[in-house]
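Usage

Read records sequentially. Each one opens with the input sequence:
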Amino acid sequence: MARERVATHPGARGNTLLVLLSLTVVTLLFVAFLGNVKSGNLVSEASLLYVTLIFYGAATALYLAFGVTGLERYVRFALGSTWLGFLANTLAFAHRWWTAGHPPFSSIYEMLLSFVWTLAALTLVAERRFAVRVLGTVTMPLAVVGVVLMQLLPSEVRPLVPALQSTWLHVHVTFAMLAYAACAVSFALALMFLIQDRMHTDTFLAVTSALSTGIYLGMLTRFAPAGGLRVIAWDFTERREVFLAPQVRLFVVIPDLGWLFLAVTVAVAAPLALYVWSRWRKDERALNWANSAFYLGLLFQALALTAFVLRARGGNYASLEAEGLYPTSLSASPFLLAGLVGGIFASVLYLMLYWRRHDLERLLPSADALDRLTYKTIGIAFPLLTLMIAAGAYWANRTWGAYWSWDQKETWAAITWLVYAGYLHMRITRGWRGRRAAYFAILGFAVVIFTFFGVTYLLGGLHAYA
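and closes with the structure output:
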């Protein structure tokens, strides 16, 4: 009897979690339905994206629950939740197209909508076609971050500027979204290859710590005197950023938040420092300390996210550039919020690996198969990147009279192309396989992320609208 109780306990625990998650999803959907009934608009783009977020979030939670418990049923239910989210995502995509009168390619909001839809589609295809059952473990958190960002970005349908009134816009962005989504899938496959190739879990710890440290170091560029954090002021009436002059944003300072982010930076860097110390001194105890410090760093990240949301979602703050108090909003700092959420997701994914590596390895194809799948995916992404650049150059020549103007977006698109060209070159001519090829795939996606988001947010240029 005792043995029977031990055997049935994990299943009962799994059923309890599924029931709780199902009740949460149903409750959220019911609240959304009541809100739509009250507004008199039963079907809207915002509500469809809300449903998309619920199901993508549920899929992410189920994948992470598998990482905690090792129960395979969570993977099956995660796939079903991904399908439901994809259906809502498709309806939101179609609604935007119908409302705007053109494909949703003309703003960063619309491009995110297209990217998330394409990413989910390729995830479903890859999981079914290549039997990579836990691919969504990496891609669904990316989709969740994308949908969260869409909730903060300006979503109004506006007349197209003259430069965007071209069929070549549709061609150019279609290739871009397909290519970027394929790059995201290749990134996920490369990570899974490293797991199957027996890369030490401690190395993943160091990489995750380095990633989180990089995120917070980037945020500390907003560190203000007296320990505040500089964020962009927000005009709630016009629903846009406040500018001092053309292309010059007005920043306000949230007191003490800079000190908190500095403390979080130290906390998330501690596991990396302990890892380096353990390798240098050959002290295995330092690795145990590093994993303990990792939990503390994750707690600090959660505190930073909570404090940022509470302080940045409203309130009036002083500015170093102008007199008086000015409001800010989460909509003024969407990419800061995305960095905070992304760092937490990366940390939780590491813990999933740390707790359930054996179960993950059992569900994944072999290392050789994942290496080939990464190569095939990049083999699809690279021609799409090439066509994206070619279509963009032709479109630029028709619009501005020049094929190439060394705009920031163009330059980084070229860098992205060169990274993946380097991958294919080394693979074909030098026979690169295994970890070196996987590192190239991961580097390529990092450049894609910067090209897609970082250039738009930090550098501007002719592509400021996207």
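Summary fields computed downstream for this record:
- The radius of gyration is 23 Å.
- Strands lie at 229-232, 234-235, 240-241, 243-245, 248-249, 251-254, 316-318, 325-327.
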